Amino acid sequence: MNHKVITDEYLEKMNAYWRATNYLAAAQLYLLENPLLREPLKKEQIKKKIVGHWGTVPGQNFIYVHMNRVINKYDQDMILISGPGHGGNFFVANTYLEGSYSEVYPNVSRDMDGLQKLCKQFSFPGGISSHVAPETPGSIHEGDELGYSIAHAFGAVFDNPELIATCVVGDGEAETGPLATSWQSNKFLNPITDGAVLPILHLNGFKISNPTILARMSHEELESFFKGMGWKPYFVEGSEPMEMHKKMAETLDIVMDEIKAIQKNAREKKDATRPVWPMIVLRTPKGWTGPKVVDGNKIEGSFQAHQVPVMMDKPEHLDILKDWLLSYKPEELFDENGRLIPELEELAPKGDKRIGANPHANGGKLLRDLRLPDFRDYAIEVPAPGAVEKQDMIELGGYIRDVFKLNEEQKNFRIFGPDETMSNRLNKVFEVTNRDWNSPIEEGTDQFLAQDGRVMDSMLSEHMCEGWLEGYLLTGRHGFFASYEAFIRIIDSMAAQHAKWLKVCNALPWRRPIASLNLLLTSNVWQQDHNGFTHQDPGFLDHISNKKADVVRLYLPPDANCLLSTMDHCLKSKNYVNAIVASKHPRPQWLTMEQAVKHCTQGIGIWDWASTDKGQEPDIVLACCGDTPTLEALAAVDILHKEMPEVKVRFVNVVDLMKMEPSNKHPHGLSDVEYDSIFTKDKPIVFAFHGYPTLIHELTYTRHNRNIHVYGYHEEGTITTPFDMRVQNKIDRFNLVIAMLNNMPEMENKGAFLKQKMKDKLVEHKTYIHDIGVDMPEVAEWKWTGLK
Ligand SMILES: Cc1ncc(C[n+]2csc(CCOP(=O)(O)OP(=O)(O)O)c2C)c(N)n1
Ligand SMILES: [Mg+2]
Question: Quick check: pTM over 0.90?
Answer without folding.
Answer: yes
